[in-house]
Amino acid sequence: MKLLYVVHFHAPMGGLRENVYSSALYMQKQGADVYVMLKPGPLRDRLDAKGIHTIAAEFGASVSAVKKCVQQLEDLNVAFDLIHFHPGLSKYPATKYARLHNIPIVETYHGMWHDDLNKHAGLLDAIITVSEGIKLNLQKRLKRLYERYYVIPNGYDSELFKTPVFYDINKKEVNIGFVARLDEDKQFIMDILILAANHVKHHLDIKINIHIIGDGTEKDTFIKLIEEALNNTAIQSSIKAGW
Length: 243
What we know:
By secondary structure, the protein is of the alpha/beta class. It contains eight helices and ten strands. One of its GO terms (molecular function) is glycosyltransferase activity.
């Protein structure tokens, strides 16, 4: 089986990158011949190191940008059995190339952003969502093609994790870990930590350590909002951010 992933992203690190990386390695392990079209950077280097075929691309919505990406795929001269992509600029070369060669194509949604699904849903053989909630959100916007939806939850390798150490309610110190890409489209996730900060500030007898594992265009604004939530309280707080 020859499989093509087409993926566009802005930040060099994040959940989408890890999802594509894990998926590509898993399919390679199952015997598939895996290709990934993406922009140059850390993810491409990691995939190359694992023997995954990569195609460096500069994505765009213009006719010339899409044409260039499609031509790169044509030059490979590979008869792909399936194309998989995520929302964003990757949809343009992915759907065009699939139409040209009549290749089955699927799209995976990880969040609330629908990326004008109604405009290209008819080109898809399957619409994958990582939760029932995301599926229902998309179906509210696109009231057709219900038979093309499949829910495949994100998973993790339990062997990579030790038995968790649960919080001791008698401790006077709380460690909060928050892992996310800190960009505008992740606002709904960042709001959760801001709500948590507003909640714990009423517990004046504890020390709070907030570890923000992530970076992005909204990093400074995000940290400022958390600091403001904890300002003028007796709480001792420590906020650290970055990858």
